[in-house]
Amino acid sequence: MSSKDQSIHGIWGRWIFILAATGSAVGLGNIWKFPYITGENGGGAFVLVYLLCISLVGIPIMIAEVALGRKGRKSPINSVKEAANEADVAHWWQGIGWMGALAGFFILSFYSVIAGWALAYIPKVAMGTFTGADSAVAESTFGNLLADPLTLLGWHSLFMVLTLTVIARGVNKGLEAAIRILMPLLFILLLVLLGYSLSSDGVAEAANFMFSFDFSKLTGESVLVALGHAFFTLSLGMGAIMAYGAYMPRDASIAKTVMTIGALDTIVALVAGMCIFPIVFANGMEPGAGPGLMFQTLPLAFGQMPMGEVFGTLFFLLVAFAAWSSAISLAEPAVAWAVEKGFNRVKASVAVGVFAWTLGIGTVLSFNLWSGDEYKIFGKTFFDTLDFLTANIMLPLGGMLIAIFVGWKMKKRKVEKELDMASMLPFNIWYAITRLVAPGAVLVVFLKGLGLF
Ligand code: PHE
C-alpha cells in the first residue's frame, strides 16, 4: 500500500466495506419508514417511483460519493474541500460537506428516538405483552409508549450511548465484528418473517397494494417523498457513504460494490413491506397508519406465532442493531472532521452525541407534550419537520450538488481514474447520468414538490 493509500482513521478490507456500507444503508429507513410512507402515499405507484429514484438517481450518486471519499481519504468536509481546491471552484462548494454534517446531526437526533422505540419493544415482546393479543392491545401498547416522554427519553439516551461508545472506539474496531454476525442474521430473520406473512390471509391484497400502479394517487409531494427516501435509505447526500468510501481499499471496484449495496438495501425494504402489509390487511388495520405501523402490526403477528416471543424479541433486537450500524455512519462525518482538527476521538464523540441527544428531546416531545397544533410548524410536528427537512430537502440537495460537482467541476480524467472501470461504456453511461439525469431529476422533483407546476 502506498503512503497515499492511507487514511488516518483506518482502512477496511473490501468485504468489510460492503458490510459496513450495507449496515449504514439498511436501517430504520427500510424496515420502519419505507412501509409506512408507502402506506401513506397510496402504495404501488409510490413504490415504482421509489425504485426509479434508486436506480437512476441514488446508485449513480452513491458511486460519485464513494469516489469522492476514496479520492480524499478524509472526513467528507475535508475530502470535499480538497477536491474543490483542486478543481479550482468557488469557495461555497465546500458547503456540501458542512451541510451534510448538519443533516447528519438532525437525522441522528430523531433516528435515536425511533431506534429507542425498538429497544423498548425488546422487553415488551419478550415478556409476552402481545401473546394472543388483538389489534386494540397492539395499538394501545404503542400509544401508551408514545404518551410517556420520560420513558422515550430513557430509551433515546440508551441508544445514543450505545452509538457513541462504538464511535469513540473507532469505526473499525467495534463495528466490524458486530456487523459480520448481525447482517446475515437480519436477513435470515426477515426471510422467516416473510414466510410467515406470505402464508397469512392478506398476501394478495398486500401484493396488490404494493405493486399495482395507480398513478391517480401520486401527488407532487409523494414524488418528492419517494426521491427523498431513496437518498435516506441509501445514506446519501450527507457524507455517511463518503466517509465510509474514504476507508475503502483502492483495489475494490466502486461501481460493482455500490450496485451490490443498492440491491441489498432495496431487497430488504421490499421484504419488510411484504412482511408488514399482509398482516395489516389480514387484521383490518390501516396501511396509512403512519410511524407506528411497524410497532403495531408486527407484534400482532408475533403474538399469534408459535414461539412468537422468541422471534419477536430477536426481530426487535435486530432492528435495533440495524439502526445502530446506521446511526454510527450518521455521526462519523462530524467525528472524523473533529479528529482531523486535532480533537481526540472520545471527546469528539461525546460532543457530537450530546448535541444530537439534546436535539432529540424535540422529537421525544413531538409525540406527546408538543403534539398539539400550537407547537406545529406549517402543520408539522418538530419530528415531522426535521424528517421532511432532512430527507426531502437537505439530502436530495446535497446529492444533487455532489453529482454536479463530480460531473461538471472535477476533471473527467481524475474521476475516470478513481472509478477505474473495466471498459469505457459503463463509465460513459454513469457519467452521463451523473451529469444530466440525476441532477435534472432532483431539480424537477423539487419544483414539482413545491407545487411550481
Ligand atoms: N440509510 C439509513 C436507513 O435507511 C439512514 C441513514 C441516512 C444513515 C443517512 C446514514 C445517513 O435507515
Brief digest:
The chain has 453 residues and is an all-alpha fold.
What labels would you give this structure?
mainly alpha, 18 helices, binds phenylalanine
Molecular structure report:
The termini are far apart. It is built from 18 helices and no strands. It is mostly helical and 453 residues long. The longest helix is centred in the last third of the chain and has 33 residues, at 308-340. Residues 24-25, 27-30, 107, 232-233, 235, 238, 240, 326, 329-330 line the site of phenylalanine.
Average pLDDT confidence is 91
DSSP E strands, number? 0
Shape: globular
Gyration radius over CA: 21 Å
Total helices: the number is 18
Q: Kindly, what is the distance between the CA atoms of the first and last residues, rounded to a whole number of angstroms?
A: 53 Å
Specify the helix fraction band. over 70%
Label the structural class. mainly alpha
Strand content: under 5%
List segments where confidence is low: pLDDT < 50 over at least 5 consecutive residues.
none
Spell out which ligands are present: phenylalanine
Order of helical and strand elements: HHHHHHHHHHHHHHHHHH
Q: Main beta sheet, described?
A: none
